[in-house]
Amino acid sequence: MTSSPPDPVFEQPWHAQLFALTVSLNEQGYFSWPEWAEKFGATLKIHGVARSLNGGEDYFLAWLDALEGFLSGRGLAQTDEMRVLKEAWTEAYLSTPHGSPVSID
Amino acid sequence: MPHDSLDHDHAHSVLPSDPALRVKALETLLVQKGLIDPKTLDAIIDTYENKIGPQNGARLVAKAWSDPDFMAKLMSDATATALELGFYGRQGEHLVAVQNTEAVHNLVVCTLCSCYPWPLLGIPPSWYKSDAYRSRAVREPRKVLAEFGVQLNEDKEVRVWDSTAEIRYLVIPQRPLGTEGWSEDALASIVSRDSMIGTALVEVPQ
């Protein structure tokens, strides 16, 4: 554990999107930050049981699990709705020629 | 599916990673439900990638070093005093400043997740979010500090502050000797992010 040169703010675009999604929902009042922090903290704890998290990709994977579960628990986004849209995006990437914009209907 | 890096003629678009697809699905769903606006997301990302960062906290520290009245206000009500410089909002609403002295060194951690004073320091670095730092900073702070290259005298007290979703701490590092008469800009330029978390000291560049 040493101090290193500045990290990029977000290592992956999806980390940034996930962060922004959560902040936006919070700011619109769908949940308070302490409520979110409690859920996220609990998920980090569960993810950290099997191995020590390094605070990078694994941190945002825990964040994603936490947010999906949190929104599903509050009826804001159901698991099956998320699954269907994920399949739609996957199909869109696999059927869109390389270089063309990917979108779903 | 094997991916031939020499093959530039992909038949289809490169499939994003599984979590990236899950985030896309979640975003699509929330947009469809009218819960979020993609433009808002872009603005939030732009803010944290380009506009907010440790330079904000460094300005606050430099002003406090230069102006004893400002330092006194900062120590008694950091939230209101940071607001004077225009630093407020997201995760900075309940800010507490803790000052390093000859007798005390302060170190900030979030044992729950990664609570952090965003308006002053931006997004926390990976190590701040790691299990190792989050657990060890409380258990063995001197050892952690030594690994960051911070060697403290035995008689110096180390205080560890556990940030929460309600309270965010900012360390006001000690002003180094040899900076007498420096402008606030010059002072701000030597205040690092880590020094405001407590994992570094501020030193005059050689």
Give structural notes.
The complex is a heterodimer of chains A (105) and B (206). Chain A is mainly alpha-helical and 105 residues long. Chain A has helices at residues 13-27, 33-50, 57-73, 79-95. In chain A, α2 packs across α3 (57-73). Mean pLDDT of chain A is 90; it is low at 1-5. Chain B is mainly α and 206 residues long. Chain B has eleven helices and four strands; from the N terminus they run αααααββααααββαα. A two-stranded parallel ribbon of chain B has the order 1-4. A two-stranded parallel sheet of chain B has the order 2-3. Chain B folds into two domains: 18-49; 53-197, Nitrile Hydratase, Chain A. Chain B has helices at residues 18-32, 38-51, 54-66, 68-76, 78-84, 118-121, 126-129, 131-139, 141-147, 184-189, 193-197, and strands at 95-99, 104-109, 157-162, 168-172. In chain B, 45% of the residues lie in helices and 11% in strands. At the A-B interface, α1, α2, α3 and α4 of A face α1, α2, α7 and α8 of B.
**Helix residue percentage of chain A:** 55-70%
Order of SSEs of chain A, N→C?
HHHH
Structural class of chain B: mainly alpha
CATH architecture of the largest domain in chain B: Alpha-Beta Complex
User: What do the pLDDT scores of chain B average to?
Assistant: 92
Number of DSSP helical runs of chain B: 11
> What is the approximate shape of chain A?
globular
What separation lies between the terminal Cα atoms of chain A? 46 Å
Level of helix content of chain B? 40-55%
Q: How is the CATH topology of the largest domain in chain B named?
A: Nitrile Hydratase, Chain A
**Helix/strand class of chain A:** mainly alpha
How far is the first residue's CA from the last residue's CA of chain B? 53 Å
What's the gist of this structure?
The complex is a heterodimer of chains A (105) and B (206). With 105 residues, chain A is mainly α.
Task: Give the helix/strand layout.
The complex is a heterodimer of chains A (105) and B (206).
Chain A: H1 13-27, H2 33-50, H3 57-73, H4 79-95
Chain B: H1 18-32, H2 38-51, H3 54-66, H4 68-76, H5 78-84, E1 95-99, E2 104-109, H6 118-121, H7 126-129, H8 131-139, H9 141-147, E3 157-162, E4 168-172, H10 184-189, H11 193-197
Parallel strand pairs in B: 1-4, 2-3
